[in-house]
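the two lines:
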Amino acid sequence: MIEDTNTDRTEISGLGEFGLIDHLTKEIKIVNSSTVKGVGDDAAVIDNTGFQTLVSVDLLVEGVHFDLSYTPLRHLGYKAAAVNISDIAAMNGTARQMVVGIALSNRFSLEAVEEIYEGIRMACARYKVDLVGGDTTSSKSGLFLSVTVIGQAKTEDICYRSGANTGDLLCVSGDLGSAYMGLLLLEREKAVFKANPQAQPDLEGHDYVLERQLKPEPRADMVQILRDANLKPTSMIDISDGLASEILHLCKASETGCQIYEDKLPFDPTTLNLAEEFNMIPAIAALNGGEDYELLFTVSQSDFEKVRKIDGISIIGHMTANIGQAHMVTNDGQVIELTAQGWDALKKN
Amino acid sequence: MIEDTNTDRTEISGLGEFGLIDHLTKEIKIVNSSTVKGVGDDAAVIDNTGFQTLVSVDLLVEGVHFDLSYTPLRHLGYKAAAVNISDIAAMNGTARQMVVGIALSNRFSLEAVEEIYEGIRMACARYKVDLVGGDTTSSKSGLFLSVTVIGQAKTEDICYRSGANTGDLLCVSGDLGSAYMGLLLLEREKAVFKANPQAQPDLEGHDYVLERQLKPEPRADMVQILRDANLKPTSMIDISDGLASEILHLCKASETGCQIYEDKLPFDPTTLNLAEEFNMIPAIAALNGGEDYELLFTVSQSDFEKVRKIDGISIIGHMTANIGQAHMVTNDGQVIELTAQGWDALKKN
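prediction for all of em together
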């Protein structure tokens, strides 16, 4: 399995809370002009004149959202930041600032926290987000990450979940189901490793699906791509819990229904190969798997030509008048009702 | 001890994540005109034109920051919100929005989460803060609360820790050490209860110190009081970790020193009585106890007459040129150096 092979261990308690914060934040450089004051006071200061502020929070909990036996801490930090940046992209906005809370037990060393922070910093650097504050504390057991992201957008650019109209085209960026295939692969190799600790993990050639699971990239680029195409979605959401669950969110918020087509769902070839290996219908991975962090959005039918021209966007269906009901036409012509079998953190106990 | 006597128990898993969020947020009403969109989308939307945005995050971890054997869940929620609102007051700003993350194990029922949320809502109502988003998830063990608060202030009103000058007067709102006395009292009664579960807790007549510990009120009122007096602090911080620790923060950020006088420290009579009962010097409770959530700030000497006239503010010393060094003149005329013996969450393991 992928393990922390760092053999140097510094106890966090030796630094104290303030020492730790100083240590972790000393190399942070501010890149956004809206960031007036970052780490080091009671609150960060942000100047957003002329823009509206977007705020979103996500918790990542050990044993619930991640398994440290195969999740490198740096990837964990990266993913925690990425999934929040994705929430801002889903509003058609740009992430600008981030505050991070970390609670961890004394089985974690200073080097472990540094790895998590390094991952967060890498994601922040890549997406030009300023890390402006945080709280680091101990826990009795386990690792908890809380990330709050602040973004901005012009009022007229913001896309809510509630704006879809009957007849709008339902579109998705990128491909689906790959993060779930990565998870299945990691879980399989963990089971092999448990049965035989001498076994080497068989992850060769699966870089794509593993990256999709361990180090997802939010589609912040899509915000610019849509703007360049002079295209404003009527509604938008990111795919964190699975396509089915997100479609139902759009339907509920917009008071519409939805019909999608199995043969329109976008898959990467490696996802299709792995689905065959795991004897799984690819659409199930897309609908229920989650964690793809692609954007799901609706556009007016009159924008069909604009959206058709954009590489990496698939039109998978359209919104209907059947409020709250979503259906999929399968490859063999059946019509099935979609239910929110999306991954539910509360049922994982 | 104070215990949850609620005998009805609803399992959270029966609701699912989205059902739980709907349930907890259905009665939220928006009160701030800057809150464009609250709970229910990928991110909240805030319009802060003409103001700067302030952001702060705090984690509260079971067994580290609170002990559920004597902390009612409603009080816990209230305190989690209050300590964050205090951070915004410490910037001389006004808290406007809040996002909350809760992770909890399956030993907590729906009623338990409702109690926490009720406490958060009570604090938000009292301080006119909109609860605009959150994330609720399970944990393998224990209860974790993450609160991020968004505030606003005019650029020229914001007080940083770094603005104190040599000769400035050091002032504190309210009284000190009472929250620590409340903690000592609760810990004593817990020990008695452990030794003899039939014993009734002896908390009679100690309402003030218990409220200070269990349900602290942030000094958001002080922001308006200072404004009404046409007084802008040169630096400000809230007292969460203890007076000594906060003074050293101001000294470090402002590149000054500080001298305070033991006989100028403000105490409530009940704190003095309890200090005698616990055989403790009251100044130690003020310096090292923490959690008073009063405001500590500096003003220019030329503002002496203005600050002197305000009820409930004590001038406890002045800033000096001895960078990073803080001293206290004791009641018997000795000069002792202050060290940050403030409560350190990381050393509590």
